[in-house]
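General statements about sequence and structure are easier to judge against a single worked case. In the encoding step, the backbone of a single protein was reduced to a row of integers, each denoting a local shape. The record that follows shows the chain in one-letter code together with its fold in token form.
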Amino acid sequence: MATTVPSSQLAACCASLGDRRRRRLLGVLFQLDDDYNYDINWRDHPAMTPPRAAGNDPRGQASARRRDGIRRRDELLDAALTCFSERGLLSTRIEDIRRAAGASPSSVYNLFDGLPSLTVALLARTFERLFTHVTSRALAQDRPEAAVRALVDGHLEWVLGHQDQARFMYGATALELAQAQQEDLAELKANLAVPVMQHLASLADDGALPAWPAATLEFIILGPAHEACRRYLAGAPVDLAGLRELLPDVAWESVSAFAAAPPAREPAAG
């Protein structure tokens, strides 16, 4: 375990990996089999490719049903993204999404309880796609400086290449969701961040990163990029492409300047 990223912080990120509630959530969001080992497969396969059917259905009926369910679910989520982009988050009704997807009412409510649960599922899928991209960028680097820069550049690269999804993501995270939904999404994001935190820890044995809590490290590295993206996607005159040349440097200089600093405390809530 790296000395510059405290083991207690990594433990906090990993604490819920075995939680049955999280596994049920992931099973719904990503259509995973019950025996899918998320802990191993995420690190081995960052694209989070769902596993094949277990093979206990000789006629392939279960596999076909699963594929059909995944297809219908993705069609509804794609339609939701289109409607949110065209109408806005607050002006879109679930009926608009149903019609855009060409789905029957029964098929919609068979997969989602209503608009809030559909919105949360789309937000979770968006997180998964974003984290897949930035994680692959960071894990390809074998030096702390390069990994930090890749995290920031990868985030900006994904936002510029997927602006509808990014605009939805930033808008939806500002909505007031039910407490249980907020907790599920926070848990999912923490789990998706584990490979990056572990990789940074593995690169930081020489003291190249400050001994900050994981959340503090994220705020410092990605905070300016998040604010630039929010403003850009809201229509402000922000040169986000130009900032790709600047913000990775800012992130690295910010953390490297404090590499020898004592451990920081988590900011107080509120």
Remarks:
- The chain has 13 helices and no strands.
